[in-house]
Amino acid sequence: MITFTVNGNKHEFSGDPSTPVLWYLRDELNLTGPKFGCGMAQCGACTVHIDGVAQRSCVMPVSTVQGKEITTIEGLSENGDHPVQKAWVEHKVPQCGFCQCGQIMQAASLLSTNPTPSDEEIVQNMSGNICRCGTYPRIHKAIKSASKSMTGSAGVGYFDPSQAGEEA
User: Fold this and answer.
1) For 67-119, what is each residue's pLDDT tens digit?
2) Which end of the chain is more exposed for a tag (fewer CB within 10 A), N or C?
3) Where would I find the H helices in 7-135?
4) Alpha-carbon distance 31 to 24, whole Å?
């Protein structure tokens, strides 16, 4: 029996230990935030936090989460008011929305370890999350905004999206 916590609730898994965490979250717990995108940990749509760190759940076997805490977008904030979620709404980041849960989880993980990332650090950290709609300038601006709201400062090298060809 593999035991772990998802969004604050204990769970036990007795199935095939090689089952990807993503399938358990979606098929057994009906959590639809993490998405199946590529199945190779290349797109980031399946991103969740494992013990607070952004991880790709599509390639992570359930056997590796024994005793760990998994947080999905559904558990990031009970009321959807995490600073990153609020910044996403404020800056109208999503277009189709498919990748956005993974993008938000990746950004929240970044800001939890680096509350004032530079533009280069944001680009580097977010580079494994693909947005087919190309909302990268808005994603970047939202991360800077969330950083500012979390720390009370603009951080290092505040990003100006107008210089990237995206209207504010």
Assistant:
1) 999 999 999 998 999 999 999 999 999 999 999 999 999 999 999 999 999 99
2) N
3) 21-23, 73-76, 83-90, 100-113, 119-126
4) 9
